[in-house]
Each structure stands twice: as C-alpha cells, then as structure tokens.
Amino acid sequence: MKKKIMIATNLFDINPIVYSGHLDMFYQLGKCSDEFEIVFHAPWRTPIDRARNDAAVMALYYDCDYLMFYDDDMYFPKGIDIVNLLRRIINDDKITILQALAFIRGYPFKPMIFEMKDIEENRKKMMTIDDYKDKIDDDGLVKCDAVGCCCTVIDTKLFKMVPKPYFLTGEGHTEDIYFCVKAANYVENVGIYCDTTIKIGHLLDKIILVEENRDIIKKIHEEHDLNQLFLPDETFIPLMHAGKSMAYDYDKRVNPLTLIPEDE
What we know:
Blueprint: E1 3-8, H1 16-30, E2 36-41, H2 48-61, E3 66-70, E4 74-75, H3 80-91, E5 97-101, E6 113-120, E7 123-128, E8 141-143, E9 146-147, E10 151-155, H4 157-161, H5 175-186, E11 192-199, E12 201-202, H6 211-224, H7 236-245
Helix pairs in contact: 1-3, 1-7
C-alpha cells in the first residue's frame, strides 16, 4: 500500500549548489511511485515556526502519512538517501520522528541532535549530543530527545495527538526542539532518532574571493582537491549547470493554504 508523503520546504533561495541535490531527491522519489504518493508544499518565505505549522496543517488536510521537512540550504549528496530515510521510518514502528545526520552551520558545527540533561537541581537543559558516535546502535540510529527539522520525517499521527501550535520559536529554543519536547509530553513512547547512515550537508555562507584571501583559498583547494570550498563533491559542477538551466516563474505560485475551505 502506498504511503502518502508531504515534502515541505520554506523556500527562500534556490542555490545551484544544493538545488542539484534537491532535484535528484525528487527524481529518486519519482522512481518509487509504487511506494510513495508525494505532495509538495513550498510556500513563500515566512517565519519558520509558521511555515512548519502550515505544513503540518496541510499534511493532515491531504491525509498524508508522513511529513518530511527539508531546508533550502541542505545538500543531499545522493537523492536515494532521502528515499531510504522514508523507508526507515515507515518500516520501523519504534520511530515517529527521524532526522538525517546534519550539523549546525555555525561554529563549532555541532550535530543537530539533542538530549535533555540535568545541569542543576530541578533544572534541565537541551544540549547537543557531541558524543553521538558512542551512542550509535547496530542499525546506525541514535536515540535522542530532539532533532532539528533540516531534513526530518515526522509521522503525522503526532499532529492528531499534540495540540496546536505544533512549532513555536521562543527565547532559548527553536521551533523544532519545541515540537519534540511537546510531542514527548503528550504522546507516550515517542521515538525520536537520528539516522547516522544518511549524511547530508549544510550550506555555509559563500566566500568572496579577493586578493587578500586568494592564496588561502588556493592552498585549501590544492591540498584537499575541492571544487567548492566546504563541498568536497566532484559531481556538483555539472549538476549546478543543470540546475541553473531550469527556469520557473515563482511569482505565479499560489499559496495552497488559501485553497482550504473556511470550515475545514
């Protein structure tokens, strides 16, 4: 029986470096039409918690089994990895939230997987799992208390059991951690995991080449054989050109939320 998947992103920029990976993801998903029915949700850029809440509402409206978030600055070296991420959560009953392995784009580039720790008496804090390699099980999974939503699949049954708002950005917490904590409070045995066998990239700020840094960039390129600083993938150049050649008039897009009847 096919699973209906909503793929959602909060689109701000189409960067040719990462866009090639996004195209490959959809190509690989298209080849699996006997497994998945895909609904794509890509609204204009809005506050991230609002965008995620809207996607959750749309996923329920279209009776989707799973909602997958990906951010527009994530790089997928292999599109088939996303297919495997979906297959993993579908075939493993203990998992209700599953993220691919990714790292925060700011220094010191910690993993986007978190656990609740006691830091003082009667006080807890969500902290990154820096020692995640020591906690990987035989299937490549790391059990955690929260993940980011940069490339994450969520079982939509959670949205039927957790009250709105699902996602909320606040002082000291991001919208994705908020949802994970809230889900754990309302749903028994929520399974939140990171699949370390699926590794994706996080686009960093682009470097501006000037005379002052030319020699440094040249040295890094020569020593590490990089086509693009921070992206050690020799295949991305032809894919980048392919991405640039595709044109679409984004001003003509329609916000699908406006299509929902008022009584829904």
